[in-house]
């Protein structure tokens, strides 16, 4: 069975350069650190989410009743699993595994829709079964870095169905051209966002969900009191201002250049899958387990791919860093690939578990 609870932080160890976790380097910035320090000083009282909820709502043109603040995007997936009585949940893979793990933990039936690498891991909405009453997809999708057209995702919405779009990496794309965060006209659309990636706040656990007020209320009913801390609320307010959003967009534009530098540096023998648009690449290499082990021996941590449904040990997810770091990584990878080459291993055959659609 696929280990749905394995994540990039498990690849890290002292002395390794981190290409396994997709958090923007050099964050949080100094101004945000100041905000957080002041919020800690103000943490004697219980958290009041009113201001942060209003700030998020204003940033996306929503009513505050359509905003749920959460302890990271991961909490939102757990709330959906508990609150949405899905009889047939479809999770589009390869993708972030926490949504499926949350659904399985409460006994929801799950079908995996496995996207085809030959099609660039792009979604064909016709592949989603008509009777699916919960559909989960990432945009951009982790680990493929593919950005699906907003119009294609919008066609999935219909009465009686919840469509959960994980936009944790949406702000890594300049202008967020395919985001559905501001759409209020689509029935059952739930967009989940996070401050983790762009602002380097993985340890703070801060995110939010946007959707119809009645669905938001159902999710909120599953939360304990005060689920989001005072520092996290302060970060939400600070990072959703026009100035902060402009800074995030500038960072996304810089990221695009850094991604191009990594793509240019990769050696022969490495296949880049899909059309990467986010802060990471999905690579396929021959004899991936040996390559990943050798990278660790040379001081590099990358994310293994075989814990994502639909991928194999030959798949590696690599975070985009500054060009100098990327070139150093690519040079090491080239040396490893020029060593003893071995035949590419075949993907593992499915071993039971959820039904899969290919």
Walk me through what this model shows.
There is one protein chain. The chain has 358 residues and is α/β, with parallel strands linked by helices. The chain folds into two domains: 8-25 and 246-337, Aspartate Aminotransferase, domain 1 (Alpha-Beta Complex); 30-244, Aspartate Aminotransferase, domain 2 (3-Layer(aba) Sandwich), CATH 3.40.640. It is 33% helix and 16% strand. The chain has eleven helices and 13 strands. The chain has helices spanning 30-41, 50-60, 72-83, 98-105, 150-154, 196-199, 213-220, 230-239, 242-265, 288-297, 323-337, and strands at residues 17-19, 67-70, 89-93, 110-114, 134-138, 162-166, 189-194, 207-210, 271-272, 280-284, 300-304, 315-319, 355-357. It has an eight-stranded mixed β-sheet with strand order 2-8-7-6-5-3-4-13, sandwiched between helices. Strands 1-11-12-10-9 form a five-stranded mixed β-sheet, with helices on one face. Helix 1 runs antiparallel to helix 8 (230-239), helix 3 (72-83) runs parallel beside helix 4 and helix 9 packs parallel to helix 11. The radius of gyration is 20 Å and the shape is globular. The two termini are 18 Å apart. Residues 340-352 have low confidence and may be disordered.
């Amino acid at each position: 069975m696929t280990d749905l609870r394995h994540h990039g932080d498990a690849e890290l160890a002292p002395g390794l350069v981190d290409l396994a976790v997709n958090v923007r380097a050099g964050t949080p910035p100094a101004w945000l650190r100041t905000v957080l320090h002041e919020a800690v000083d103000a943490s004697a009282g219980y958290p009041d989410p009113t201001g942060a909820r209003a700030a998020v709502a204003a940033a996306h043109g929503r009513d505050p009743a359509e905003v749920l603040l959460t302890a990271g995007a991961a909490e939102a997936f757990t709330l959906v699993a508990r609150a949405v009585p899905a009889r047939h949940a479809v999770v589009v893979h390869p993708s972030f595994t926490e949504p499926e793990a949350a659904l399985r933990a409460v006994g929801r039936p799950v079908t995996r829709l496995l996207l085809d690498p030959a099609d660039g891991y792009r979604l064909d909405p016709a592949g989603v079964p008509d009777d699916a009453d919960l559909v989960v997809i990432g945009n951009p999708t982790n680990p493929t870095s593919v950005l699906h057209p907003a119009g294609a995702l919008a066609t999935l919405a219909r009465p009686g169905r919840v469509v959960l779009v994980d936009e944790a990496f949406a702000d890594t794309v300049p202008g967020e051209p395919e985001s559905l965060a501001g759409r209020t006209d689509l029935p059952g659309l739930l967009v989940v966002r996070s401050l983790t990636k762009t602002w380097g706040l993985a340890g703070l656990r801060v995110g939010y969900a946007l959707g119809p007020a009645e669905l938001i209320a159902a999710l909120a009913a599953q939360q304990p009191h005060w689920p989001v801390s005072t520092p996290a609320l302060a970060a939400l307010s600070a990072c959703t201002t026009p100035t902060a959003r402009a800074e995030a967009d500038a960072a996304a534009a810089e990221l695009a250049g850094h991604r191009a530098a990594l793509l240019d540096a990769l050696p022969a023998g490495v296949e880049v899958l899909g059309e990467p648009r986010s802060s990471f690449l999905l690579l396929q290499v021959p004899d991936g387990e040996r390559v990943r082990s050798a990278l660790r021996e040379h001081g590099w941590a990358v994310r293994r791919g075989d814990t994502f449904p639909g991928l194999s040990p030959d798949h590696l997810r690599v975070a985009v860093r500054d060009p100098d770091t990327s070139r150093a990584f690519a040079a090491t990878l080239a040396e490893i690939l020029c060593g003893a080459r071995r035949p590419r291993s075949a993907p593992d055959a499915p071993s039971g578990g959820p039904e899969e659609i290919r």
